[in-house]
Amino acid sequence: MGSFMATLGDTSESPTHRPANGDEVSLDNDLSCLGKWQSKSKSKQLVNTAWAFVTAGHKEERLFTALAAAAEQRVRDFNSQELANTAWAFATAGHQEEWLFTTLAAAAEQRMKDFISQNLANTAWAFATVGHKEERLFTALAVAAERQLKDFN
Description:
The model is unreliable at 1-19 (pLDDT under 50). 31% of the residues are buried. It is built from eight helices and two strands. By secondary structure, it is an all-alpha fold. It has a two-stranded antiparallel ribbon with strand order 1-2. It has helices at 2-6, 27-40, 43-55, 61-74, 80-93, 98-111, 117-130, 135-147; strands at 16-17, 25-26. Helix content is 66%, strand content 3%.
């Protein structure tokens, strides 16, 4: 996991990064480490990883493809905030795989009663941004938002 996190260097210009210890780190090697890590990680760690990378401006397609596969395996364990943050992170990264957003939509619909206004806004924004027009999800988001109008600022 250490070498995986070392890729926080600018991978957009080079497929390798040289951390402070001088070892060269390959993004390919780090992504293979992710596969091993994802099977042991908790849902919150997975979501936080996607959020952190996109917030730091790292939107490497292969990284987000690996994170998407891990998210699909863990989505049943996600709480409402983790669902909203995952959708936001992938939309912000420009990672628009329909299968991922379909999976997130189904899970969000099941947990809609737990969504706070911020979760509703982030989820609606993410799905609109990637153009995933999941009618049942948007209907559920609208109903939940109407119930929480006073909580929106």
